[in-house]
Structures are given as structure tokens and as C-alpha cells.
Amino acid sequence: MVGSPGKTYGKVYVLRIGHRRERDKRVTTHVALVSRALGANGFILAGDCDKRVLASITGVVSRWGGDFYAGCTPSGVKYVEEWREEGGEVVHLTMYGLPLIEVAPIIAASSKPKLVVVGAEKVPREYYELADYNVSVTSQPHSEVAALAVFLTLLFDDSIYYTVFRGKTTIYPSLRGKRLVLGHGLG
Amino acid sequence: MVGSPGKTYGKVYVLRIGHRRERDKRVTTHVALVSRALGANGFILAGDCDKRVLASITGVVSRWGGDFYAGCTPSGVKYVEEWREEGGEVVHLTMYGLPLIEVAPIIAASSKPKLVVVGAEKVPREYYELADYNVSVTSQPHSEVAALAVFLTLLFDDSIYYTVFRGKTTIYPSLRGKRLVLGHGLG
After folding, report:
1. What is the model's pLDDT at position B186?
2. What are residue B8's phi and psi, to 5 degrees?
3. Which of the ends of chain A has fewer CB neighbours closer than 10 A, N or C?
């Protein structure tokens, strides 16, 4: 398919909260890149607006294509509240939620726009209260990057594997190594 | 199920190559934690043996349970060669491989022990040559943590959601927030 699977729901955005500049730069960048590659339409960084993270993701969008929004919000809580007021629903990924395998089909069946909230180490209580779904990807400690990836693949199913991004750079799959095509500039 | 899904194949280990201490500490720790939480039996760090990463993962194993090995190897290439000599197969996750969705059923159907190789930014050519499978989780740039997570969930299917770790700490899923049980010490 051409265009992001997130459009099935109007839009699917990822909200990263609790980012700390020194500790989280690379992990938050991974969160943003995974959002794009696995079918979401946008990434919002709450709190400290780390320009390096935004530069990484917008750089990837300009080279690799796709219709993807990246921006900041001063308040994650307000962003969540507004998302809900506009008719969207909020999925908070946390070790302490209901099992993904049980909740995912319910979330996927609802046609509402989805905001996926991804925390760092400690998440303020408010997010648990505001979320329509608190969802755990296993009840073991691992990684918000992994939790997001597993959630998105389950939400979008196989469509993430058939998404066409139409960027200046495209990789064609090959058995042993790199086959890059540069300069097409379709997108 | 009690015990790691990786045992279905004898063992499934994750080999992290290209780790750089300052840049990658948190991302490599995420790779290790995801390996454990999503069903692998072991994690090997190649090259620079970063004790902080090993301490993080062994700390989680001691609190949260499970039968999981974590260690280092001075040479990732030798580790891969020995794995193959002992009858195992090697899956290298890379942006430049064959599509996961096509290759995963073939890998899952083979009963051989599996070594999943996860690189950082640049991966030496040798790994592409030595791998039985070079596999891409989308042909877009994102995250080795995400690629590993998606690969393991596809390899082990739903069994990762029903794995029992029997640790001193266990979380029971709940609608809004935290329900921890401490001190059981079953595992």
C-alpha cells in the first residue's frame, strides 16, 4: 500500500513522554523512527523539545519518504486531553497494563484515531487515568521501543510489510547485502 | 508456558555486535532485555565487554526470574562460526535482507538452534556472508531493538505472551496502574 497504515484510523500518532536529553537521545530517536517505519503518521515529543531527535526523524522522512509529522508539545497531559476531546482514543504502553494479546483486537476494531503514549522510566499517574487502554507487552521489563514495535505490528498486521514510502532512497531486498537505489525522488 | 519459548529450538541466543560504550549503553541494554522478555534464552555481547550492560540484564534475571544466560565474546565472527559448526543457524537482522514476512515461516519451521545477530550502525561484510538468513524488518531505517522484538514475536508467535518467569517480582495485569507482588521467590 502507498501511504501509512495509520490512515486506516484517520491518524495514529505516537507521543513520547519523559524524555531526558542526555540519557534518552538515542532511545527516543528509535521511538520516532519505529513510529514511522511501522505505520504511524506522526511523532510528538512532550516536554523538553530536543531538536536533535526531531532533526533525525525529519532527515529520515526527507530521504526515505512517507507522509509523517514530527513535532513537540510543551505538555503531554494536555496533548492527551485534547486528543480525547477531538474524538480520538489513547493507548498507553506500560508494563502494568492489560495483556496486549487480549486488548489489541479491541483497539484494532475501533475506528477512532489513536494516540500511543510511550513513557521512559517513570510515568505520572495521570496518564494511567487518562488512557482509554493501559496495555502491557508482556509484564516483564524490556524496552519502550520494543513495546511500540510489537504494538504497531499487531495493530496494523501485515500492512506494515507492504507499505511503500517512495523516498529518494529505496532498498531492494537481497540475499546477501546491500542493494540501494538512490535519487529516484518520487516522494 | 513455564520456561523460555527459545527452548523449542534447543536454544535461541541473541548476539549483539558493534556495541560502543558511550553511544550504545542504553540501546544495547534494551536489546538484552528484549531478548529475555520475548523468549530468547541468552544474550552475548561481542567485542568490548561492557559490564554495565551485563549487570543490568543479570539484575533483571535475578529479580524477575527466568532461565537466561548473559555473557561476552571477544569475537562476534568466531562466535557465529562456532555456532554454525555446532549445527545451529544464524539469522542476521539488517535493513538490507529479505523481507521478514516471507522468511520467518521458513526460519520458524527449522528446528535448529538459532543465533540472532543484531548490529549497530555499520555491520562488517562477513556477517552477511556467514548468516544463513539476512532478514529485514521493513526496508526502512528504524531500530535494532524494534527489529529484534518483531522478529522474536513472529518466531515464537503467541507463546511469548504466556511465558511464566517465576521471579521474585511479578506483575499482575490491571486496568489502571500497578499491581506488584513481591517476595514470592519461586524462581
Report:
1. 37
2. -50, -35
3. N
CA B132 to mean position of chain CA atoms: 17
Nearest to A176 among B33, B129, B153 (CB): B129
ipTM over 0.85: yes
* 8 Å CB contact between A53 and A26: no
Q: How far is B103 from chain A (nearest CA, A)?
A: 11
pTM for the whole structure:
0.93
Chain B closest CA to A129's CA: distance in Å? 6
Residue carrying the nine cell digits 524494534: B146
Report the pLDDT value the prediction gives residue A186, as an integer from 0 to 100.
37
The grid cell for B174 is 490491571
Chain centroid offset of residue A182 CA: 26
Q: Do A33 and B149 count as a contact with CB atoms less than 8 A apart?
A: no
Quick: pLDDT tens for A23-70.
999 999 999 999 999 999 999 999 999 999 999 999 999 999 999 999
Given a cut of 50, whether residue B55 has pLDDT beyond it is yes
- B149 vs A64, A146, A158: nearest CB: A146
Angle at A132 between CA A129 and CA A138, to 5 degrees: 90
Residue A178, number of CB atoms within 10 A of its CB: 14
Residues in B closer than 8 angstroms to A175, CB to CB, are: 97-98, 134
The per-residue pLDDT for A129 is 95
Residue B45 parent element (H or E): strand B42-46
HSE of A162 in the Cβ direction (CA atoms, 13 Å)? 6
C-alpha cell at B106: 521458513
Which range is least confidently modeled, A55-59, A92-96, B155-159?
B155-159
Distance from CA of A165 to the nearest CA of B (A): 9
Return d(Cα B112, Cα B106) in angstroms, integer: 11
What residue in A sits closest to B163 (Cα-Cα)? A138
